[in-house]
Every structure is written in C-alpha cells, then in structure tokens.
Task: inverse folding
C-alpha cells in the first residue's frame, strides 16, 4: 500500500501540482501566505486558518478569518486580546476551545519564544498548546517549506483510495501508515503546495460520496480507480499479503456497487449522548423601555467555556413538565436570592441543538421581572443585554436558536 516506484511518485507530484496551479481556489490565507515575506506572519496566517478550518467549511471560515486578521493582524496583537473578545469573534464557529487555545498559544509565543514561531513540525507540536500533528505539518510545510506531510480528513480519503486502504481508517495501524505515505510522497521542493493540493483534491474532486474520477488529475496513480476500470489486480485489492491490516476485512470485502467509495472505511460512529436542559429567559424593561435579557457566564473550562447563556439547569431524562418547572424555579431562587414561583415560569417550547457528541434539547421558559430588577449574586457573572447586544456577545449558536 505504499508507493514503491520512485518514477510513479515523481509523476504523481507533477500531475497533482500542475492541476493545483491551474485550479486552486483563491483563499485569503493562501494569498497572504504566498505574498508575505515575514515567515512568522505567514505562519500566523496559516495557523489561524487551519484552526478555523477544523470541522468547519471553507465558505464559512473566510468571513471569520478576514475579521480575525483585521482585528489581530499579528501574533502580538492576538496575545493582547481578552478571552471575551476572542469568544465574541469566534461565536458561531463552534468548538470554542479552539479559539481559546489559539490565543493561549499566541501568548506563549510572545512571552516565552520572543515572538518567533517554532520552525519545524516537531517543535510546533511540542511547544504550542492546541497544535496537533496535522496543524504542525500544515504550518511547517506551507510557511517554512519543511518537506513534511499532512493527514486530515480529505487526505485520509484520497490516500485510502489511491492505495486501496480498506481497513478502518481511524485505526492506529491505518493512521500510522497514512502518515508514512504522506511523508513519503510530499514534494521536496514545494511541500506546502503539494499538501494543499492533496487537501484541495479531496475537497473538490475526490469527494466523499460522488468523486469526479473522470476529471481527476491523478487517476492514473489511483488503485481504486484502476480496480473499478480494469478489475482486481493480484490479491483481493492488489495486495499480496494474506491478513493484511490495511486491506478491507475479509468479512466486508469489496462491494462493486460502491466503486471507489469502498474506500475509506470507518468504524460505526458512536451514538451521541442525549441530554435535556431547562433554560430560563429572564426579561425586564430597561431604563428606555427596551427589552433586556439576563445572561450568565459559563465556567472557564469544559463545554462552551466562558461563553454567555441564559440561566440553565441540566435535567434528568423523562422528568415531567411540572417537575422540570419546579426544579428550574428552585435553581433560579437559590441563585438569585429571591423567591421564584414555579407558576410564573412560562413554557415557550423546545429547541434541539446537535453538538458533535451530544444531542441536546433545551426546554425554554421565560420569566418577566420588574423593570428595576437587579441581582445580588456575583457568581456566576451575569449581565443584562438588549437583543442587539445579545447578538454581539460571546454566545453559542444554541442560545441564538433559543432566542
Ligand atoms: Fe479519488 Fe477518483 Fe481521483 Fe482516485 S481517481 S483519487 S478515487 S477522484
């Protein structure tokens, strides 16, 4: 499952890079990385874009990236930002700890590394919190020209198809092998472009469900495509080894109706955890008659760390509505230090939000308070906001759905 013929590797690099030069998408971080003479600024731009692109579509990221770079054009500027500002800008991108760790790492570069980014993938991964093997490889190859490979979701798909790797693509044996393949094939003189080309191919041509093999610049080097067009080579997938840990398992052989999408294979996904949370939108009329909502801040670690939300209470499953209401009233009363009658809570409805690993249902209540209502409580931090201020705050997409 490796590329054993140096001539084939050379041809693959040539074909892929020629296609990339012709067809690459114009993306703001590419423009900056291609024109910026300062290697630290190049690395910063690539780093920000790569962290934003994890689990998020390119089309969504562009706008966030542009606003981020306008606000914090350098590592030094980011190091001086507050977590509140970072969360505000990140709101809607999801996986909030990514923004937080990016900022922590920027502070570390400024305070401990004299503002100079580590120059190799190994050092980037070792020294910067939140920078994993993939991000380190991307920054080092694109910004510093280190000939090191990258393996992300797109690369996994492309390499599994190119090499007919059909074992569970999240297994350590397959992942280790893919890193070996990626490091072996990366172009020595244009490693950053080569890695971006491989990812771009996965994003635009070698798509998960309907790959455009007819238009693919590397189909001549693709074993899955050969398997479909000319039938199997020696062994089940062109691999001679019996019991090979990289071939499809004997119990799930090649399915001809799937064609090249036989690869990659994934183990069955774990079902998300089901959770219910009661949410109370406390409302009052502010000094100019404008409606205001009360927000409280989440703890600084864990899910949605440091973000603002309506006062919330996790609920046991299968609790009757009356019991939910009472539990929420008790929770509010304990926290606000004033009586809250369960009957005063108005049930508005339910909102479902899917986090990566949680299927969350918010049961939404509202409670109108007097215009001059204040709160003695200092923990957790709280504040009154208008609807406009709410949308500009560091709130999660789930809370926006609640509104
Ligand atoms: Fe992917 Fe098809 Fe190209 Fe192979 S030929 S790399 S399966 S698009």
Result:
């Amino acid at each position: 499952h490796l590329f054993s013929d140096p001539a084939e590797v050379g041809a693959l690099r040539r074909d892929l890079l020629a296609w990339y030069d012709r067809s690459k998408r114009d993306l703001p971080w590419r423009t900056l990385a291609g024109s910026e003479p300062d290697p630290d600024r190049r690395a910063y731009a690539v780093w920000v874009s790569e962290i934003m692109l994890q689990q998020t579509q390119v089309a969504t990221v562009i706008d966030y990236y542009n606003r981020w770079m306008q606000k914090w054009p350098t590592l030094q500027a980011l190091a001086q930002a507050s977590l509140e500002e970072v969360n505000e800008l990140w709101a809607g991108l999801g996986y909030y700890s990514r923004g937080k760790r990016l900022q922590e790492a920027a502070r570390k570069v400024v305070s401990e590394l004299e503002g100079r980014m580590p120059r190799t993938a190994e050092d980037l991964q070792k020294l910067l919190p939140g920078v994993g093997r993939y991000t380190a490889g991307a920054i080092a190859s694109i910004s510093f020209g280190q000939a090191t490979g990258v393996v992300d979701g797109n690369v996994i798909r492309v390499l599994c198809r190119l090499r007919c790797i059909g074992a569970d693509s999240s297994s350590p044996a397959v992942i280790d092998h893919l890193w070996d393949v990626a490091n072996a094939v990366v172009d020595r003189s244009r490693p950053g472009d080569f890695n971006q080309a491989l990812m771009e191919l996965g994003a635009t041509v070698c798509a998960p469900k309907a790959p455009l093999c007819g238009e693919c610049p590397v189909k001549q080097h693709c074993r899955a495509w050969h398997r479909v067009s000319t039938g199997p080579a020696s062994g089940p997938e062109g691999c001679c080894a019996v019991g090979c840990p990289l071939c499809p398992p004997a119990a799930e052989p090649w399915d001809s109706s799937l064609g090249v999408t036989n690869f990659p294979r994934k183990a069955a996904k774990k079902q998300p955890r089901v959770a219910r949370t009661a949410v109370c939108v406390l409302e009052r009329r502010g000094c100019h008659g404008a409606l205001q909502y009360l927000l409280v801040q989440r703890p600084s670690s864990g899910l949605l760390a440091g973000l603002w939300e309506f006062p919330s209470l996790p609920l046991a499953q299968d609790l009757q509505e009356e019991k939910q209401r009472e539990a929420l009233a008790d929770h509010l009363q304990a926290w606000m230090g004033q009586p809250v009658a369960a009957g005063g809570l108005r049930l508005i409805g339910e909102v479902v939000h899917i986090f990566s690993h949680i299927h969350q249902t918010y049961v939404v209540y509202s409670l109108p308070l007097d215009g001059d209502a204040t709160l003695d409580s200092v923990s957790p931090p709280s504040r009154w906001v208008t609807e406009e201020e709410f949308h500009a705050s560091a709130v999660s997409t789930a809370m926006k759905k609640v509104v």
The chain has a mean pLDDT of 90. Residues 87 and 394 are 5 Å apart (CA to CA). The pocket of iron/sulfur cluster is lined by residues 158, 161-162, 205-206, 211, 213, 216, 218-219, 222, 224-225, 260 (CB under 6 Å).
